[in-house]
Amino acid sequence: MAVCLIALTGCATSRQKLTEEELLDMRRQTLEQIKTDQVLAATKFVKRMKAEQDAYEAAVAKGEHPPEPVFDVLVISGGGDWGAFGSGVLKGWGSVTGERARPQFDVVTGVSTGALIAPFAFLGTEKDYDTIRDLYRNPRPDWVELKDWFFFLPWRESFTTTTGLRRDVEKSLDAQAIARVAEASIDDRSLIIGTTNLDLGINRPFSLGRICERAAKSGDDSLVYDVLMASSAVPAAFPPQVIDNALYVDGGTTANILAGANLRSDKSLIGMWNNIYPGRKMSKIRIWVLINNQMSDVPKIVSPTWPSITSSALTTMSRFSNISSMRLLDFQVELLNKVDHIDAEYLYIAVPDDFRVPVQGTFKKETMQALSDLGTKLGADPASWKNNLTLE
After folding, report:
1. CB within 8 Å of 376: residues ≥ 6 apart
2. H/E/C letters for each residue in 163-203?
3. Of 290, 279, 313, which Cα lies nearest the Cα of 113?
4. Which long-range contacts (CB under 8 A, 24 or more apart) does 40-43 make?
5. For 236, how many CA atoms within 13 A lie in the half-sphere containing its CB?
6. Strand partners, 241
7. Alpha-carbon distances of 168 from 131, 220, 326, rounded to whole Å
8. Which one of 64, 134, 152, 196 is CB 3.0 to 4.6 Å from 59, fit for a cystine?
9. Residue 172: its pLDDT value, please?
């Protein structure tokens, strides 16, 4: 009986044992790498903005009258299967014309389910938007499956497997799509994915654009998918990912929205632009925040069982993380406008608070299609985007 139990349950992923001193050294190195990545990212932002301004000025010199350049940033939050809403918004948005038409984004960031959507928003063709919307409208039963009847044992790394989900992500974001992401990254557009390094207890953004550049050259695309699956790996529920000998889980554990902690620092677009081009006016900065959740929770009686408590706790954590990040972004954009005299704007869209799921449970096709339909409808209406943060 014991042999059978061991065979059924297996063991957790084998990990190399490190001393506290070695872990502290690893953290120092990783934090230094994050700082380096921030500088590299800001450098790309500056080069991209400068190129857009140069193209605009060249067109004006020829007697043309193009619209003034706008630096567009798309921020996609986590939200699990409610990512169906975001994929619908992005598709519906394609029918909008005028000032709030869906732009080609200079920067796209994504966390958790937002990480899975982000590459397709970054690529930005109608086919890409169709691909991600169709993926969320048609969840397969094997995307998330219980490992076996012994999923609850403490030495298991997760309750479920997500091999089916990874299979379909790899199929949708294939080698050709990765090569297209690489080309856009070379053109100084940026795709950034948020994850959480559990060993070091830090938020870890990855430049997926640069990773795709390396994958396109080497033919090894495994890290692309490892980062995406890590960002969406809900702790305990979904399997973690080991990247560079560190354990990574859902980026929403540390930040459900990846919008930059300090938009005015020396390592940001604003700080670096002012250092390189002092006195030169920056392009308008417009930040679009796509929230795959409601801003207010639906009151309910939570069953006193660990699955119900865990699910409700994670949803609450995610929602309050969104609210905290939005408040910070609201404050920073106000400073950019009033103190730095930079034309900056942020707009956000979220699932309306009066939405109710048609079917209880996660990854239910009826619910995901209802969210997709709702997102498509709201995305087609420019008035759905709000620029005033009113939270109860």
Report:
1. 88, 89, 91, 92, 133
2. HHHHHHHHHHCCHHHHHHHHHHHHCCCEEEEEEEECCCCEE
3. 290
4. 40/207, 40/210, 41/190, 41/192, 41/207, 42/267, 42/268, 42/269, 42/271, 42/272, 43/272
5. 9
6. 248
7. 11, 18, 32
8. 64
9. 96
Report whether pLDDT(149) > 70: no
Q: Look at residues 209, 218, 148, 149 and name the one whose alpha carbon lies nearest to residue 180.
A: 209
Task: Report percent pLDDT > 70 for the chain.
Answer: 90
Q: What is the mean pLDDT of residues 43-48?
A: 96
Chain centre to alpha carbon of residue 151: 28
* Whole-number pLDDT of residue 344: 95
How far apart CA 251 and CA 317 sit, in angstroms, is 12
Backbone angles phi, psi at 156, to 5 degrees: -80, 140
Structure tokens at 332: 């920073």
Task: Check: CB of residue 224 under 8 Å from CB of residue 211.
Answer: yes
8 A C-beta contact, residue 311 and residue 361: no
Sequence-ordered list of residues with C-beta below 8 angstroms from that of 200, at least 6 positions apart, any chain: 23, 26, 27, 30, 246
- Tally the residues of the chain: 392
Chain centroid to Cα 157, Å, comes to 24
Distance CA 344, CA 334 (A): 8
How far is it, in rounded angstroms, from Cα 209 to Cα 214? 9
Residue 254 CA to residue 271 CA, distance in Å, equals: 25
From first CA to last CA, the distance across the chain in angstroms is 56
17-31, 77-91, 252-266: which has the minimum mean pLDDT? Answer: 252-266
- Buried-exposed string 360-389: b where 16+ CB fall within 10 A, e elsewhere: eebbeeebbbbbbebbbebbbeeebbeeeb
Query: For residues 210 and 216, what is the distance between their CA atoms, to the nearest angstrom?
Result: 10
- The rounded Cα 51 to chain-centroid distance in angstroms is 26
